Amino acid sequence: xxxxxxxxxxxxxxxxxxxxxxxxxxxxxxxxxxxxxxxxxxxxxxxxxxxxxxxxxxxxx
Length: 61
What we know:
Elements: H1 11-27, H2 34-50, H3 56-59
C-alpha cells in the first residue's frame, strides 16, 4: 500500500461532493436507479478521499 493512502474520510466533504455530483447527473438525466447511483457515488468519492483528494470539483465525478 502506498504512503499517500489515508483512511480518514471527512463526512461533510463527502456529503457535499455527492450532492454536487448528484445535481449534475440529475440535470443531465443520467440517473436511472437512484439507489445504485448513490452507492456508486459514495464508494467512488470515498475511495478518492481515502487516497488524499480534497478538491470538491475533482471529487465530484
